[in-house]
Amino acid sequence: MTRATILLAFSYVLIIILMYETGYREIKEKRLLGILPKRATAIFFTSIIMIPIIFFLFNQLNLSNLTELYKQIAVTSVLASVGAGTADLIGRD
Hints:
Number of domains: 1
Number of helices: 3
Oligomer: single chain
Largest sheet: 2 strands, antiparallel
Shape: globular
Radius of gyration: 14 Å
């Protein structure tokens, strides 16, 4: 569980670095609660919400073992965040 939580935090930091530090495109930074980047947070939570939906569509959603589901979401969140962040950067141009 600890490693899964670290992976979730890592995927959030990774999306922030991808969007704001790569210099691919200039993004005006708006803050949520004065701390969190609004755009990156919205993309991150959208990715997290979509993961169980995709698992359900491919019949991989097992609600009887929530610990295992949490771990699966954490592992998949890294790829989902990077993909969503990249698509957001490329999609506007």
